[in-house]
Amino acid sequence: MQCLLRVTALIRFGGFAFRLPLCLLLLAVLAGFPPSPAWAALKAKSGVSLADACNPRPARDDIVLPMPCGLSMTFRLAAVPSRGFLWDMPMRPGVDDSANAERAFYDRRFNAALSGPFALADLPPEWQKHAPQGKHYFYLIAKYEVSQLQWRAVMDAACPDTQNPPPDAALPVTGVSWYDAVDFTRRYTAWLLKNAPEALPRFAGDSRNVGFVRLPTETEWEYAARGGQTAGSQQLLLEDFFALPPGASKADYAVYRPEGAAHGVESLARIGSRKPNPLGLYDMAGNAAEMALDAFRFSVAGRLHGSAGGFVRKGGSFLSGEAEILPGRREEVPFFMADGPAHARDLGFRPVISGINTPGGNRPQELLAEWNKAGESMAPTLRAARNPLEELDRLLALAPTAEIKNNLQKLRDTIKENNIALERQKQLEALTLLRTGVYMIETIRNYASRRNSLKTQLASMERDAKSAKGAALEKLRRIMDTARRGLVMLDTSLDKSLIFYRSKVEDGAQSTPETLDAAFASLARDFSGDDPFNENMRRNLELYGRHVHLFRKNKILSRENLQKEILERRFQ
After folding, report:
1. Which candidate, 291, 298, 294, 273, places its Cα nearest to that of 283?
2. Is the pLDDT of residue 4 over 70?
3. In the chain, how many domains are there?
4. Measured between alpha carbons, how far is residue 286 from residues 186, 223, 225, 274 in Å?
5. Does some domain include residue 45?
6. What's the rounded Cα separation, in Å, for the pair 551 and 502?
7. Domain span at residue 388?
8. Contact assessment for residue 77 and residue 143, using Cβ atoms and an 8 Å cutoff
9. How many Å apart are CA 438 and CA 238, to the nearest integer?
10. Are residues 192 and 262 in the same domain?
11. What is the pLDDT of residues 15-36, one digit of tens each?
12. For burial by CB atoms within 10 Å, which of 135, 147, 218, 346 has the most?
């Protein structure tokens, strides 16, 4: 008792702080008085707390779900911008230039698409507060790799020691097979349905279907690893990692083996030991590599090859070099080896929460309404002609036999599918058009700035030439002649750029307002940052939109007026 009396603990009550002997504190707990939060957060003997193994870096917008044995798992909301249930966001997973040319058919970017199963109304009200503005569809992805303690709580017959977690409790679980990881998601979902059904998202108006835990698809994983909704479509396409803050390096975000490092990392680190990516996710690069739900396919000619092999491994590990931790890097792992299901000491996983695409409630009617509308309208240039789908509907109503009616319906379905593909293509074209317009404004300003600078230098040289003589005068004249040729080139470049920009304005005016508005919203998200570059790009986008609006109103847009507005940045 004398030894315990020398050990004190800090107690706060009513704004005052007291230090009490540890033995008195224990008596207080036994008598029914709860310990302070500071006491509860003290580390176990192993140096690992439950927070270390579940959510070592809590954030205000975390979504925390319960787990067996009093543990929890933290998720982040991934929001995918889309116009409707039957629309999606184009994606280009992979990397543009593999460090090793022999791996080009492993890693080359390929065409994919992404959406989420949950609409905003399907999410609990508390989760909806974390959703970004605009039309999005959602899935959830775990904030950390599954830890050893979380794994044992779900998979073991008895609860692990949560009062004194073992030293490895906060390390990512590794050495498990793909089948083991799938079984974890199955068991965890079953536990949630039985013990905390309100923790899972449910579809509006549907009492039967519910969200479930599973492994992420490769596209879901890569979208989240690159920053999800915090990264615009342009950044998703151009960045091979994600945009790092000034002065930051990949080593701030990943446990791996940097090139030229004197001492490589030799073991796994605890979850959350580095900085989070822009979506608030930890260890998406390095530490433990992660399993995807998908079978591995080669990336050939911008698409995935037809042969489905093992499963996809993403993110690299503590054993990886810098090229291997890029979000687009793709590795194949066999489901089975000669000695049984494959596993590795540097391979773990993180789950997502998803749901089915065809729930009950109002969703069937909403899907049908979107489908009936999709591909039914004519392109603006063809609206004067009769809509072939309407003509086919008339013929279908008059079809004399079932065979003729069936053939007409097949033709109608084919035309409708082609129209839907054309709608999607028009959306991508509109986005490309806007990007071109925005950057052409910047190009025009750049040419004008260079021209003005050269004019100033030329005027200065002309003044100097009045007093120069001999060889100095001849040299100055040669420089002035070069400058005048450069000035002519810049004048021509500026003029041609203005002509090209005006043609992009005309193209924008030919797009449907709905298509162009959706592209404007997407590009505005790309330029949502508060730094000077993004502020300037938003002004360019606003100016391009103004010029399109004027063109639609048949206002005169001469090159001179365009140049004046672009250079003076006037917004009316």
Report:
1. 273
2. no
3. 4
4. 26, 16, 11, 10
5. no
6. 10
7. 363-421
8. no
9. 17
10. yes
11. 334 344 444 433 343 333 333 3
12. 147
Describe the strand order of the beta sheet including 331-333 as a list of residue ranges: 331-333, 311-314, 289-295, 347-348
Helix (H) / strand (E) containing 10: strand 8-13
Give, in order, the Cα–Cα distances in Å from 335 to each of 24, 137, 212, 307. Answer: 57, 31, 23, 15
Look up tokens 């207080």; give the residue: 28
Residues 413, 508, 227, 221, Cα dihedral to 10°: 20
| Paired residues of 91 in beta bridges | 112
Collapsed DSSP state (helix, strand, coil) of residue 61 = coil
Over range 542-558, report the average pLDDT. 84
Residues 255 and 242 in one domain: yes
**Domain check: are 416 and 477 in the same one?**
no
Given 296, 328, 354, the domain boundary residue is: 354
Crossing angle (nearest 10°) for helices 402-465 and 470-510:
160
How far apart are alpha carbons 94 and 331 in whole angstroms? 11
Q: Cβ neighbours of residue 223 under 8 Å, at least 6 residues apart?
A: 78, 80, 91, 114, 236
- Residue 381 scores a pLDDT above 80: no
Separation of alpha carbons 83 and 190, rounded Å: 33
Contacts of 458 (CB under 8 A, 6+ apart): 480, 483, 484, 487
